[in-house]
Structure formats: C-alpha cells, structure tokens
Amino acid sequence: MKSQLLEPQVSFQGSPEMAPPDSAAPLPQFSVSVPPSWVFLTEIDTQDPDPEAPVSLLLVDEQVHVDNDARYFRSVRLLKTTAAVTTESQVSIDFDPKTDRLALHSVAICRGGDRREMAQLEHFRVIQRETNLERLSYHGTLSAVCLLEDVRVGDAIDVAFTITKKPDFVGKRARFVNFGNTAPIGTYSKAITLSRELAAEIQTLTIGEIADAELRESEDELTYRWIQQHPAPVKLEHQMPITSILGSRIQISTWNQWSEVAAAFARLWNPATPATDTGLVRQQVDTLFDATDSTTSYAAKACDFVQNEIRYMSIAEGMQRYIPEPPERVLARRFGDCKDKSLLLCKLLSAVGIEAFPVLVSSVYRSETVRFLPAPNVFNHVIVAFQLEGELVWIDPTATCQGGRLQQRHLPRYVCGLVVHPGTESLCEIPEQGPPSSSHLVERFELSRTPSGLVNLSICHTFTGVEADGLRSELNTFGATAVKDAFKEMMLKRFPDAKRIDTIEISDDLESNTIKVNDSYRMAAEQFPQSGGQYHFPIHLITDNIPTTEEARLYPLALPFPRDVIHEISVDVPYAFDAPQSGEKVSSGPGFEFEHVTKSRSGGITFRCRYRTTCSEIAPEQIKDYLTALQQVTTACCVEAPLSATARQEQLVEKGRKSAQAYYAAGGHDHDPDGVPLGPGGMNWRAFLAVILVLKTLYHFVLNR
C-alpha cells in the first residue's frame, strides 16, 4: 500500500544564527530547510516488513550529490511496543562543525492520518558526546538531539536531513555508497546525482553485486537511482572476514592516479624537511643520540621513543583527519595519532641522515586495497618505511612494547600501501616482516602410583614475535601481579583443586623478543581426568585456537593468520606400562596443517602437537572439508597414559564397592547384580566369607600357641 502521508513537510525554517532561548551559544553549522532540489522524494510502502520486530524500518533512503559532496538521508521507523517507544523516541544526528553543514528537513511523528512536525530549532539541543574518547580518539563531532514529545505505540518517526561537506584540502571528491541491509526494510532507496561535466571525468567502481540503476536525466545533471521493495536482508555470519562484512558498494573518485594522492599528501606533510637546529625535534635528537651510537642503535632508540613515550591520542577535527600536527607540537604535548607519530619518527630519523617516509595503509582493506580507485579515503592508518643497513624497514609507530631488532619487529599484514613522497607513482608492496610468531606450551606431568597420591605439573609457556609483544603489552597495562593471577585462573578452570607449588616466573628477552612463563602445580591424582584405566590429557592450546563454524555458510570463515601453536605434553610414568608406539602423523585441511608426534621413552611418554594456519580464510565451498579435517584434529588432541595396576585395582574396587552399596540401598535387595548374596555394608558374601575364613585361621593360630 502506497501512502503520501509520511512525506516530509517542513513547517519551520531557521538559520545557523538561531538558537534555543536557553542555549548558551548558537547552533553551529545547523539549519532547518526544505530538501535540496536534486533530492527525489520517495513513496513509502507502509506494509510492515518485519511484523514480529518491536521496530520496523518502513523506509531507508540515501541520496548523494557528487559535485556538492552532499548526502541526503531519510528514514521512517514504525514503533510497535512500549520498549520501542522508550528507546526510539529521540533523534540524534552527528556532524563535524568544522567540515559539515547540517540541514534538517523533517522530524515528524505520524499517527494515523496526522503528521506533527518537530523540525524546529527550539526542539533541538547540540551536545558533544565523544563516544570514542575511551578509545583514545577525539573527533570534535557534535550531535543535534531532539527528545520527541507525546510518542505512542503505533507511531511512525520520519527523519530527513542533508549533510554537505566543505571542500577537502585539494578540492577533490571521493566517496563510497554502500549497498545491502542487515534488517528487513519496506522501501530501500539509493541515488547518485552528478553534473554532466563531472560525469565525463569522474571514475566509478562497482564492488560486489548491485542491480542495474534507473537513469534520470535533466539538462545539467544525471541521477542513477536504485529502489527495492522489501529487499532480503543480508545475514551476517560468525567470524566473517572484514572485507566480506563491508558488502557491495560503489566508489566514486575524482582522483585519477595514485601519484596525485601521494603528491598531495607530500605537499601538506613535508616529511623530508630537515629539523631546525633550535627546535624541539633537534633537542630530542641530541638527547637520543650518543657519540658512540651507530645509525642502527640510534634508529632503535628513536623508534622505541616514538612507540612507547609518545602516547597514542587521536584528535581528528575537520582537516586534522588528513593533516598531522607539527612534530614540535607533538613532542611538546607528548601525544599524537598515527600520522602525528609517523611524521615525528620520520623527522627524528632524517635528522641523522636516515631517509624515512610515511606510508598510507588500510587496516581494513589490506590486500583488497589494490582493487580500489585512487582516493585518500581508502586508507585509515599510517606507518613508516626507512632504509637501514641496506634493508627496507617497516615500523608501526602506534605499536607499543615491541621487542627484537628493528628488521624483525612485527608488522600487521597490510600487504600494500602508498608512500607519502612526491615521486611516488603507484601503490607499493609491503612484505611480511619478522620471524613467524608462535605460542609454545610444554606441560610435564609426574603421575602418582596410586589414586590417593599426588600429580605434579610443571609448565613452560614460550611466546615469540607478536605473541610476546601482546603479553608484554598486558604486563605493561595490567601489571605483573594481575597477569600472574590470570595464568592461575586459567589453570584452575582445568584443575579446580590444583595448588601452585612455587612462585610463577616471567622472563622477558627483548633482544630475541621471547617471553617465558614458568609455573608449577600439584593436585590429587583422584581429581585428575581419568576413566577406563587411562589418564586423559587434552591438548587445549590447539583446540582453543581452532575456529569452528556451521557446515553451510554464505561467506568465508576468517582464520587467525599467521598462527603457529605448539602444545607438548611430557608424562613421567612411575610404573610399568604398555608404551604406545612412537610415530608421527601429519595431516592438513583447508587453511591449516597439523602434526602429532608420539615418543615413548624410558619412564614416560611425550606427545607433541602443532597447529599452523596457512591462509587467512576458508571459502564457503571448502567448509565441509575443513570441518571433516578439524574432527580428526580434535580427536587427536586428547592423548592418554595408562594408570598403574595398583591405581586401576583401587579404582575398580572403589567403583565396585560404591556400585554395590548403591544397588543395595536403592532396591533393598539381598543380591548384587550378578546374583551373589550381599553381606553387611553391601559386601558380597564371597568376599565376606573369605574374610571370616582368614579371621578363623588367625584365631586358631593364636590358640595353638
């Protein structure tokens, strides 16, 4: 059913200078007006797209004007429960006053055939929430907030506004228009408008599957429009690669070459400009540099200083999203974001003759970056590249607590990036750097001869590479005591009655970037996992690191890559036992390799399992094979060692006694399950008579003496 009732109708127009009477300051960059002339009003299908949901989206309409760098957005929400009224009866529109002009078109409460418009400045307050401040990011974003009055169950809330961007630092345009909905929507509309002049030179790129657009032409402009009624929502799946989550999109860019982007940033950043002799940068160089220092040792000091002593804090108001703060200021206030820290590091290195340049990268797109059109908004992070001892070194200045030589420090798999240098022509390849990271756990169990004895467990857990960086960061953040307690808590989840024998030791070798954790515990043998005459040892470090999923998927399964995990269990057996056959089994599945080695030795057994991922994701058509291979790994990740004969006998006697007593108590029978009469306390009569005969023999022996 189509309805004109919910079309936006502005009842009041204001200006940026107008503000609520009780407000301390005018509303900046904020106005109330009719929609721009290039906006097409969309009819709404009022049929509920999701009858069981408390809130239904009747309309989502997004329209972009490329020449004006403006975005029109409208949504209509139907509130169907009291909880929905409570949570949805306020409107909040975020904007950056330094780069955005917000024009509000409609905020209406629609009830039956009536429409009550609240798009008036006196109904709004402007607040600064900074919801990302706890993530060390300050954006200067404001929120225009309206608390709607007299909202009831069954009302529809109709909101429409336009945000127009001010020209960026070189007057270029770049924007993504995203497609795909994760919730049911009644009417889903997208539109892109641009001038005929711009259409002749603009670049566009379609990513994913998008239906053909309806083209509308005027004398000066072209509009491409997509309208869907009740489109099927996109179903998000567990552990999707982030590139899959992004969905389908259209990229629009007026940048022609990557060289244009690199040159524009190089002009603004001036990374190669030498430090002055009197500035703070020069003073910091003199502080770090010692007469005995080599270039390599100084570079390490400079990297450590920027990574660990210049704290991360992002202030991204307006053009500060693109332009870093001057290094002098970053040094003075001792904080900065990725571009601030990268430019500072470049200055510190270039001051002693090390050629260094910032590199724009994407922590989201990574290898997919090469697919996009040239544009600054493809990137969201900055690192540094410089030459050292004939090698090209890549450093992330926002990383902290990194160990190892500079050439061996971990760098995320950015795959490619753009060097900020006027001579850059294209994207560069960023190789993997540093040795493979690993987590190697060795557990040594000293078994008891009897169930009433004790089992000793000694642990040595070795972390290398990024695994060591992560643990070192936790030690720096939470302190050694908290980290040691966390290791103990993990152990108590496996063995609740375990007692720590000695003080846990954590040793850190920064040069090799290796951290070792040594710990030891003792537990009663009867509390140790055992059944069927066997002790059970789960290879938990492997199973904890293997992602699992449903067999049927629409999207790939993301794997932690690279990941190298080794779990070794050594069991000291203080009695004769049938040793398992030594051997090695190597298996692989889509995305991983698995090794299982068994070694029998004098007085014990050693099991060693290794799990290593070989790629970053599993394709949907490979999931079935992946899960089949995973089942074999899971089965192999529970190894066993036999109990002693004494332990088995005590276990069987105890089990038999408890079983007989339970049977006797429960049924009141005078026979056990095998038909043997039961004696006092549930003891079967054969055992009872044997005891009587022994006592009788002892009695006669004493009398005869």
Distance between the termini: 112 Å
Shape: globular
Number of strands: 40
The helix tally amounts to: 14
The SS-based structural class is: alpha+beta
Summarize model confidence as the mean pLDDT.
85
Low-confidence stretches: 1-6, 9-27, 668-686
How helix-rich are the residues, as a percent range?
A: 10-25%
Oligomer: single chain
Strand content: 25-35%
Rg calculated over all Cα atoms: 35 Å
The biggest sheet, with number of strands, parallel, antiparallel or mixed sense and barrel status, is: 9 strands, mixed
Q: What are its keywords?
A:
nine-stranded mixed β-sheet, 705 residues, disordered N terminus, globular
Describe the structure.
The chain has 705 residues and is of the alpha+beta class. Helices cover 23% and strands 33% of the residues. The chain contains 14 helices and 40 strands. The strands form ten sheets. Strands 2, 4, 5, 7, 8, 12, 14, 16 and 17 form a nine-stranded mixed β-sheet that branches. Strand 7 (100-111) and strand 8 (114-117) form a beta hairpin. Helix 6 packs antiparallel against helix 8 (338-350), helix 7 packs across helix 8 and helix 9 crosses helix 10 (480-494). The longest helix is centred in the C-terminal third of the chain and has 23 residues, at 645-667. It is globular. Residues 1-6, 9-27 and 668-686 have low confidence and may be disordered.
